Amino acid sequence: MKSNFRFFNLFLLVTFSFILTACEDSEQDVTNASSETDPITLTVFDSDSNPDWENMNSPVGQKIKKDTGVTLDVEFDIEGGRTKIPLMVASGEYPDLILPKSEASTLVEAGALIDLAPLIEEHAPNIKEMLGDELNRLKWSKEDPSIYILSNNTVDEDRAVPNFGVLVQHDVVRKLGYPEMNTLEDLENAIREYKKMYPEINGQPTIGLTLQSDGWRFQSATLNSGFMMTGGGDDGEYFVDPETYEAILHYRRPEEKEVFRWYNHMNNEGLLDPESFVQKHDQWLAKLSTGRALATIAPDWMIYEAQSALRDAGMEERMYGMYPITLNEEYKHNAFRNNGFQVGWGIGITRDCKDPVRAIKFLDYLVKEETQIMLNWGIEGEHYEVVDGKRVIPEDVLERRNNDKNFLKETGIGYNFARFAPRYGDGALDSTGQTYTINSREQEIANQTEIEREVLNNYGVEVWKDLYPSKDELIESSWGAAYNIPIPAGSKLDVNNQRMLDIAFKRVPQAILSDPDQFDEIWDQFMRDLDKVGVEESEEEFTQIIRDTVELWNN
Fold first, then answer.
1. pLDDT tens, 306-347?
2. pTM for the complete prediction?
3. What is the fold, at CATH topology level, of the domain defined by 164-338+445-480+502-524?
4. Is the dihedral of CA 444, 449, 453, 456 positive or negative?
5. CA–CA distances in Å: residue 285 to residues 21, 119, 157, 274, 509
6. CATH code of the domain occupying 40-157+341-439
7. β-strand pairing of 346-349 with 97-99
8. Is 305 helix (H, G, I), strand (E, B) or coil?
9. Residue 553: is its pLDDT beyond 80?
10. pLDDT band at 498 (very low <50, low <70, confident <90, very high)
11. What pLDDT does 35 receive?
């Protein structure tokens, strides 16, 4: 009897312990589940500026905070991180998340970034689904296959608009009877004839061609036109042979010299804005916004403010169309070259991150289908409606999207949050067969002004993209875009690249503004300057990096 009582007491003790443990496990499960949305602030350093940042107070920002519990405390930079990131390395202190642009190598070499591969594998199913085999492209190098940077570029991109071209006022081609606009000779003739017909616009002297020369924009616009007009894709400072992967500093191509000679000719003819190489970005925009400048050469995003200003002012005839103009008929414009998924620039999680799992789960939330739709379309019932299963933007909202410069900041739609993770590109389809972004061909047509539509119709197309060679006509880039490939910070190649760019910043304007009979002499000096800093050695080294990248991505 006594032994049975002792056994019963033991049974009760074990049973009670089991129940207590089960309750504790249950409480722990609840705690873990709730912790995924408990409030947390993640600090972020973004090497880009963003005047539209809304401190997560917009409808989209509030929804993201509600869903994730995450508040982003973001510091933006206007120098691309070139000053502040080395200071972080020197201090050894980092934010939770960082978008380093070209300074990623600095952080990797300092051991500041953690390997994202295990985090993605365990906690980021949406990122894995979105990128699929493209995850392989995120590997840092042949020697170090870790993933330090999660690209914030587009996936499945099929852009509806060109990303680069010659921008010519609609009124120019209208008044000239819609001449051919294929070559630099065509452009020159149009500018000369129209400027002669209209020496003044709105009481101010007409400017023929104005160029962008303010800091890095000089490189993105004017310098890049050298390869864009001679059949090259955007690989930064190098031109890459698509068959041999041999890289050459693009200014050293003889055909590009002729593009810059043409600028020199335009200057000598009085058709180039004499302030092209002294004006700041705001001054360049102002000239475009007042309708004085007949043409410029730039990426599409660089003139967005000017286009909006002209539209707001009712000067739709002074808005700009984008033409795939090349040196001559021999070359195809590569604006729509397929580069595949672009890597190198993006976001990393630092070793100081207070909660790397919450950080990667936040990034994973940004790429899931529902979030991607919200980042592009906004909040259902507020920024778009669903009609017969299709997302539709009401006319008043569309009007604001097109014309209200505060729309993105007030709503949180667009690049505000999309900049922090990979995103589906224009033309990519969601599970319902609709495009993730609003930048469809149909939307592009709907956004056109009457004058723009008239111009396009007279050239026999519906949208500007139709004037350009399609991606199917161009050789696909198996190395992506070369400017995205990381180069060890402070390496000889890194230093030489900057020295060569500095030389280009000096010699190209000098050559363009010189007397025509001095152009060759200055250009030859430009080439000798490049030789002195070891341009051939740099080309050989970068060629090997390109080849290693292709090999890495194919393994």
1. 998 999 899 999 999 999 999 999 999 999 999 988 898 999
2. 0.81
3. D-Maltodextrin-Binding Protein; domain 2 (3.40.190)
4. negative
5. 68, 44, 29, 16, 20
6. 3.40.190.10
7. antiparallel
8. helix
9. yes
10. very high
11. 66
